[in-house]
Q: What sequence folds into this?
């Protein structure tokens, strides 16, 4: 068997493996949320605001997803040259708690 034939056979085997992997990923069951139900997220409508949070020397970026009622706070760490997670809030949970506090 020549080198060219071996290379072709290796490429065929690689393509077959990749095709099999694609089939497994495509046909695998969808991930489910911790509550045991599928979660379909709406496309996000994002608003971003920069502000300096208490106790930090760098500004933070607050990102609100109005469609999914979520808030994310991140900051840029100059020394590590990377974004750092600060906090996450589920605004639906906050809204429910506020409504229950008003006696609804």
A:
């Amino acid at each position: 068997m020549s080198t060219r034939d071996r290379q072709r056979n290796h490429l065929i085997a690689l393509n077959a493996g990749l095709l099999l992997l694609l089939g497994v990923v495509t046909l695998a069951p969808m991930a489910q949320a911790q509550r045991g139900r599928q979660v379909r997220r709406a496309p996000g409508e994002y608003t971003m605001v920069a502000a300096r949070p208490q106790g930090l020397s760098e500004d933070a970026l607050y990102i609100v997803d109005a469609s999914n009622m979520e808030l994310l706070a991140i900051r840029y760490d100059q020394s590590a040259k990377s974004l750092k997670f600060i906090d996450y809030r589920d605004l639906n949970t906050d809204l429910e708690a506020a409504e229950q506090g008003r006696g609804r």
Remarks:
- The mean pLDDT is 83.
- The CA atoms of residues 64 and 77 lie 21 Å apart.
- The radius of gyration is 24 Å.
- The chain is about 35% helix and 30% strand.
